[in-house]
Each structure stands twice: as structure tokens, then as C-alpha cells.
Write a structure and sequence with these properties.
Elements (H helix, E strand, L loop, with lengths): L3 E2 L9 H9 L19 H18 L5 E6 L2 H13 L5 E6 L2 H10 L4 E7 L25 E3 L2 E2 L4 E2 L11 E4 L16 E5 L10 E6 L16 H6 L9 H16 L2 H21 L4 E2 L11 E6 L5 H10 L2 E2 L10 E4 L6 H18 L1
Parallel strand pairs: 1-13, 3-4, 3-5, 5-8, 8-9
Antiparallel strand pairs: 2-10, 6-7, 9-10, 11-12, 12-14
Helix pairs in contact: 1-6, 2-6, 3-4, 7-9
Length: 361
Amino acid sequence: MTIYNFSAGPAMLPHAVLEKAQAEMLDWNGSGMSVMEMSHRGKEYMSIAAQAEADLREVMNIPDNYKVLFLQGGASSQFAMVPMNLLRGGNKADYILTGSWGKKAIKEAQRYCEVNVAFDSSAESGKFSTTPTQEQLNLSDDAAYVHYTPNETIEGVEFPYIPEVGDKPLVADFSSAILSRDLDVSKFGVIYAGAQKNIGPAGLTLVIIREDLIGDAIDGTPVMFNYKTHADADSMYNTPPTYGWYLAGLVFAWLKEKGGISGMAEINERKAAKLYAAIDASDFYANPTEVKSRSIMNVPFTLANAELDATFLAEAKEAGLVTLKGHRSVGGMRASIYNAMPEEGVDALIAFMAEFEAKHA
């Protein structure tokens, strides 16, 4: 039986990538070594690292005046690294709040500066289920940068546009949306993403940063939290997460074979559209997110009778559909349908949902 893993992260990887990694596990390219055994400064590994960056730059069309950093510490470490490196003499930053991860980013930034919450989508309802319009953003004239989370994994809320912030650097936590659709990198000062959702295994963190934002960290910034440290050393200041970097490189190459990000976006939008259509056509299931702000990566849904949640999860598992339980803070179900989730997996989920409804409605 085929197993489809709908986990929000660590999430499934493309089957072809895992097969290639399996074939190269004991001997990479005739070197007689596993990638996990290689010196990160040896010529074999350096070639792997360089190819991964080159492929990422190609698929994302990253401008030459941006550095690509392969780091550790997860996106959560970036919650601190961003203010440490981007305040640059200022003492205020704007944050757009549309979900749980944005809330955590704000809490960390408040340790280093004044935070102006330019919009809080939970202010009225107490729940995160929408995104603001451009006109609703209360941006500060004296903010050092503007931060937002384009896709909130837990609530399934995604921005339908890129905020206009004038000459302020725009910073984005793209952990659960990176590589899912085309993106104009030049509109951002910093893009960061934990790898464990749409790039590769947990342990690797990707940072894409405009070069003029590097080199002015606040006093007392630890060496490992200074972007300049890693930019100057090509992400090799210390031993990087070498195997995660290698697997990410395989994913970037796989993306190229699948038609790049634009080709993947067509598939992603089709997967999400059919799943939302199935939910909307039913009185048994519901999606809590405003239609204009629905995520194409994370689809939360509830059952009309919450007492059936455990039964739904148990029967779904028997059908090969796993990790569908919603985050503990919101309950219900959540189907994460990242790039690696084949369309057949979404079709199988929709078919199961229809069968379950017919049995229990």
C-alpha cells in the first residue's frame, strides 16, 4: 500500500530524491565515501555545495547581489538573527501578524527593539484566518525593516500578494511556501526558510540576503548569529549540515527536471484547488480560512462532528493517509501538500473524505 504523508514538517521528500540518495549512500560519485563522511572542505563536498547553490539560484532566479547562506538553527534562530543584523542603528521594526509563527517572531524581536505590529489579523476574532490588504498595513516611517510570514503553516493562511514597504528592507519567513510558486527575490531584503517543509530534511536553514544588509550587526551579536560570518566563509565558517545541504541540492535538481518553480506552481495550485473544492462542496467538512487568504501548501479543515476526529484519523491511517492531525493549538485536521506530495496523494485523500462522509454523515 502506498503511504501518503501529509505532515507539516518534517515533511515528505520526493521519491526520486530519496532513491538517488539511497543509491549514493555508500559511495558518492566513485569517491568511496558517503556524503556524510566527507570533509566539508574537501573537493568532493565543495562541488556538491557549489552545485546546490547554483541550482537554487537558477530555479529562483536569485540576483547576483544576494548571498545564499546554508545555515543551522532553524527558522526560529532567524527570529533573533534578523533584528541583530538588520536594525543597523535603529530601534524599531514593523511586523505583520497573521499566525502563530509570526507571533513567535515578534516575541523574539521584542528582546532587541521596539516592535510595531503593523497589522494583527487576530485582533477582532481572536483567531488567525485572514491577511490584510495593503491599505490596512500601519507601517512606521522609522522602522529599520518590515517582517512578515507569507504562509502560516499552522493556520493555513497565505498572503495573496507581496507587501509594498517603500525603501525599507522586506524580511520574510518562507519556511512553508518557498519553491512553491515563482517569486521576485529582488523585492526582499531577506528571505529565510527552515528546510524541513519544502526543501529537505530538518537541520538546514536557508537564508537569501541582499549584500548591502550584511556587516552591521548590533554590538554583542554572537559570531554564529552574524550574517557576515557566514557570507564571508561561504557558509563554511563551521561544519555545516552537510547531508541536509546535499539532499537540498538533490531537491533543487529535481525541481529543474519537473519544469522549475513555474511548472511546480501549476501542480500545487491544481492540488489545492481540488482539495478546497471538495471541502467547500460538503456540509461535513469546513475550512476556517478566508478564501482570499487560503494556503496552497497547508490546508486545515474541521469535521462537523469533532467527536469523529479520532475515527477519521484512524481510518485515514488504515487507508495509507498519515499525519493529518491538525496542530494542537487549532485542532481539526491539516493536510500539508508541499511540492513532494504527488497529485495522486491529494486525489486519494479526497476520495477517502467522500467515503468517510458517506459512512458517518
